[in-house]
Design brief:
The chain is an all-alpha fold. It has helices at residues 8-21, 24-37, 42-54, 58-71, 76-88, 92-108. Helix 1 runs parallel beside helix 3 (42-54) and helix 3 packs antiparallel against helix 4 (58-71). The chain starts with 7 loop residues before the first helix and ends in a 15-residue tail after the last helix.
């Protein structure tokens, strides 16, 4: 696929497409480039964390979810996905705390950017 090399939206979308099709290497290449171009966007760290989680690298995924949450603390979806990664690291107490945070954000804050869904969870 050809795209403008500095088009962050296109890089994000293509990274998502590669994630869905299972090409984690290309997904990671695109999201890393997008993060390099705009390092203050939380959705990019969340996407990279999702790619890492789908690759089984839960430790690094948690680090990127942490980055995303530090930039945008009202995204219940990020808390939910971090909970799944934490559960896969056998950090159950923290995972439960994140699930509770995700539920609180999605039910009490009108500016939440996502609703929690327990995708990818072994629970």
């Amino acid at each position: 696929m050809n795209l403008k090399p500095n088009n962050i939206s296109a890089l994000n979308l293509r990274a998502k497409a590669f994630l869905v099709t299972g090409d984690m290497g290309k997904a990671m290449d695109d999201i890393n480039k997008a993060i390099g171009l705009a390092p203050s966007r939380p959705e990019q760290y969340k996407l990279r964390a999702d790619i890492l989680s789908n690759s089984g690298d839960f430790k690094n995924a948690v680090e990127d979810y942490n980055r995303a949450i530090s930039i945008s603390p009202n995204d219940s979806g990020t808390f939910n996905n971090r909970a799944v990664a934490l559960a896969n690291l056998n950090r159950s107490k923290e995972a439960i705390e994140d699930l509770n945070s995700a539920m609180e954000i999605s039910t009490t804050r009108s500016n939440s950017t996502a609703t929690p869904i327990f995708q990818g969870s072994q629970w």
